[in-house]
Amino acid sequence: GNQSSEFLLLGLPIRPEQQGVFFALFLGMYLTTVLGNLLIILLIRLDSRLHTPMYFFLSHLAFSDISLSSVTVPKMLMNMQTQQHSIPYVGCISQVYFFIFFGCLDSFLLTVMAYDRYVAICHPLHYTKIMREELCIILVAGSWFFSCVQALLHTLLVDQLSFCAGTVIPHFFCDLAVMLKSSCSDTSLNELLILTEGGLIFILPLSGILGSYIHMAGIILKVPSFKRISKALSTCGSHLFVVCLYYGTIAWVYFFSSSGNSKDKEIIASVMYMVVTPMLNPFIYSLRNRDMKHALQKIF
């Protein structure tokens, strides 16, 4: 009888008189995210010159970015507009699942793209042989599968917890870590799973990305030349910037902002990797790319 059927989301730490300005700002950012990433997917589908492994992975990353923003931002905008901050239990559990799912998928896809760049720079003569279509499909399918398993495991464990009536979540969405703090049950198993499996999901892809870039740097610096360094930066610079932005904000939220005084900073960092990063990806990773510009000109 005391089990909560809905939760209360406190939302963003902004003043009531600023609600309209922030609503317009986040609505514009969300529409830019959706339209920009949809444009990337459309260009890759229509232009045969973009039917390469890098753009194949990029199309999945663009879809994942749209989905990651769509999990939380529309509900946040609706709450800001209507001032109704409640969310049903089922809706909250769904947010937990899809947030973990697409967050993990982003991480795996960034790792796969780093491997693709490693092969392109370190083994250019064997690139087409190594990055064949079958391997690309396996890498993407594996990313989707393991993301689904990870999200399902955490969601099923959260569904076993009890939440007292009138539970307040001090966030703008149902974040897993915040929900565990709001539960009336023993969450030691959930926390252990986050520290072990969740830590591995964070550390292993990041280690793979850093290892790829360290190896690439070693290959380039063996015979340093301005042309090789410039080509490597043009090939990998955007991807590396996205990786730093994505993992930097996640690390800030889940590893460096555990104190109560940094709650507002934690929410701002969450906005960064769920709203800002997916919005910037079309610009910093794709639309500044020469092949993507040619495809865009061709379409227009």
Automatic annotation (TrEMBL):
GO function term, MF aspect, one: G protein-coupled receptor activity
A single Gene Ontology CC term: plasma membrane
Topology relative to the membrane: Multi-pass membrane protein
Domain G-protein coupled receptors family 1 profile: 36-285
Transmembrane segment boundaries: 20-43, 55-76, 96-115, 135-153, 199-221, 233-255, 267-287
UniProt keyword Transport present: no
Main location per the UniProt record: membrane
Location relative to the cell: Cell membrane; Membrane
Keywords: Cell membrane, G-protein coupled receptor, Membrane, Olfaction, Receptor, Sensory transduction, Transducer, Transmembrane, Transmembrane helix
Keyword Cell membrane carried by entry: yes
Entry similarity comment: Belongs to the G-protein coupled receptor 1 family.
The protein's role, per its UniProt record: Putative odorant or sperm cell receptor.
PANTHER family linked to this entry: OLFACTORY RECEPTOR
Protein name (Swiss-Prot/TrEMBL): Olfactory receptor
Organism: Crocuta crocuta (Spotted hyena)
Lineage, top ranks: Eukaryota, Metazoa, Chordata, Craniata, Vertebrata
